[in-house]
Design a protein that fits this description.
This is Cytochrome P450. The protein is α+β, with helices and mostly antiparallel strands. The chain has helices at residues 22-31, 48-55, 74-79, 81-87, 98-109, 112-116, 119-133, 141-146, 148-158, 165-179, 186-212, 218-224, 234-265, 267-275, 280-290, 322-325, 360-377; strands at residues 34-37, 42-45, 60-61, 139-140, 226-227, 230-231, 296-301, 305-307, 310-312, 317-321, 382-383, 403-405. It has two domains: 1-61 and 295-327, Uridine Diphospho-n-acetylenolpyruvylglucosamine Reductase, domain 2 (2-Layer Sandwich), CATH 3.30.43; 71-293 and 349-405, Cytochrome p450, CATH 1.10.630.10. It is 50% helix and 9% strand. The strands form four sheets. The protein has a five-stranded mixed β-sheet with strand order 1-2-10-7-3, with helices on both faces. Strands 4-12-11 form a three-stranded antiparallel β-sheet. A two-stranded antiparallel ribbon has the order 5-6. Strand 5 (226-227) and strand 6 form a beta hairpin. Helix 7 (119-133) runs parallel beside helix 17 and helix 13 runs parallel beside helix 17 (360-377). It starts with 21 loop residues before the first helix and ends with a strand.
């Protein structure tokens, strides 16, 4: 990349930067932490202070269109209007007062007590997976270990059959296409939306079953939750079931596999958590800061305002780069160094403000149990490849595969 070329977020997708995009993010930040990117037609926010401002500023709306839909014709968008209508009722795409009502009602169902009840189930699941893997000479962590954990846990929590997991993977991948911020053809988008429509129909069927035969699960809790006469509509339940499943599935897979890869690349940090497992709670926060599974979130300016010395115009798109923000030296000393003893709880891996990730306690619990148990049972675990491949997408940072030897 020519040093005179104006920097762009898109540069992080070039093959030479996929392994370490943080050099690009550093260049963006040094150029300007609030930077207009001509290629993405958006303000790129790479400074921690400015990110915090945007994520809690009511002038920055979450009612933004899915970036990937820009490749679609008006006719195709109209064709998929019923699907897009349901997706628009997801918490990540609405503002107060609707967001306040919806979040309050979902919180009444997705309680800390319900999450804590999953602890024994998660531990048993991880033990069973490792019992199976210990017989193998070579193990691929992403698919053999990281994938089944959140898929099974969220299925158990919501009350959906675990034998549909393979289909869930296809559906959540399709939903990810809508969010990943990468260029897609119109046909690819139509295929993704068609699969998401199937996913929504699946939850619609489960809701009908719960109305006829109530069960003790999260779907049932969402159906009956009420406050001062307010309830969730069926569209809101369906859309946010999909969101809870997809968000609780993909990002936790990436949290486990990215975190393990970071530890295996830093033997001193690996030894630290192995010799003192009590460090793992803090270590998980540091791992999420170091390789954030969710890299970007976006907002749209409701009105003109100043951000630092930059004039933001009404309608401008703002991309908060969580991965870059979590490497801002103004907030984290020596940010490109992994330090499991770092107090990194103020990282923005789960966002900030009213849209802070509702499922973060469950994700943290799963990642901590998975990594602690894996490293305790297999203290000699090591990489079989020092250069695994990263997926070339902007919104999520995750490995294609992570091959290891356990013994």
């Amino acid at each position: 990349m020519n040093i005179s070329t104006p920097p762009s977020l898109q540069d992080a997708l070039s093959p030479q930067h996929l392994d370490n995009p943080y050099l690009i993010y550093q260049r963006l930040r040094e150029n300007d932490p609030v930077y207009w990117d001509n290629k993405t037609h958006a303000w790129i926010i790479t400074g921690y202070e400015y990110a915090m401002m945007i994520l809690r500023d009511a002038r920055c709306s979450s009612q933004r269109s899915l970036l990937s839909l820009r490749s679609m014709s008006e006719q195709r968008l109209q064709q998929m209007a019923p699907v897009l209508s349901v997706l628009s009722r997801q918490m990540i795409f609405i503002d107060p007062p609707d967001h306040t009502r919806l979040r309050r009602l979902v919180n009444k169902a997705f309680t800390p007590a319900r999450v804590e009840m999953m602890r024994a189930f998660i531990q048993q699941l991880v033990n069973q997976l490792l019992d199976t893997l210990q017989e193998k000479e070579h193990v691929e962590i992403v698919n053999d270990f990281a994938f089944p954990i959140p898929a099974t846990v969220i299925a158990q929590l919501l009350g959906v059959p675990t034998n549909d997991q393979k289909q869930f993977a296809t559906w959540t991948d399709a939903f990810g296409v809508l969010l990943d911020g990468s260029p897609h053809t119109e046909e690819e988008m139509m295929q993704a939306l068609s699969l998401v429509a199937d996913f929504l129909d699946y939850f619609r069927h489960l809701i009908a079953e719960r109305r006829n035969a109530p069960q003790n699960d999260l779907i049932q809790a969402l159906l009956v939750t009420e406050e001062q006469g307010e309830v969730l509509s069926e569209e809101e339940i369906i859309g946010n079931c999909l969101l809870l499943f997809a968000a609780g599935h993909g990002t936790t897979i990436y949290g486990i596999s990215n975190g393990l890869f970071a530890l295996l690349q830093h033997p001193d940090q690996l030894r630290a958590v192995q010799s003192d497992p009590s460090l793992m709670t803090a270590a998980v926060q540091e791992l999420l800061r170091y390789e954030s599974p969710v890299q970007v979130t976006s907002r749209q300016a409701r009105e003109a305002f100043m951000l630092g010395n930059r004039q933001i115009a009404a309608g401008d798109r703002l991309i908060v780069h969580l991965g870059a923000v979590n490497h801002d030296p103004a907030q984290f000393q020596e940010p490109d160094q992994l330090d499991v003893r770092r107090f990194a709880s103020r990282n923005l891996a789960f966002g900030h403000g009213i849209h802070f990730c509702l499922g973060s306690p469950l994700a943290l619990l799963e990642i901590e149990i998975a990594l602690t148990t894996l490293l305790t049972r297999f203290p000699k675990i090591q990489l079989t490849s020092q250069t695994p491949q990263w997926h070339p997408v902007l919104s999520f940072r995750h490995l294609v595969e992570l091959p290891v030897n356990l013994q």
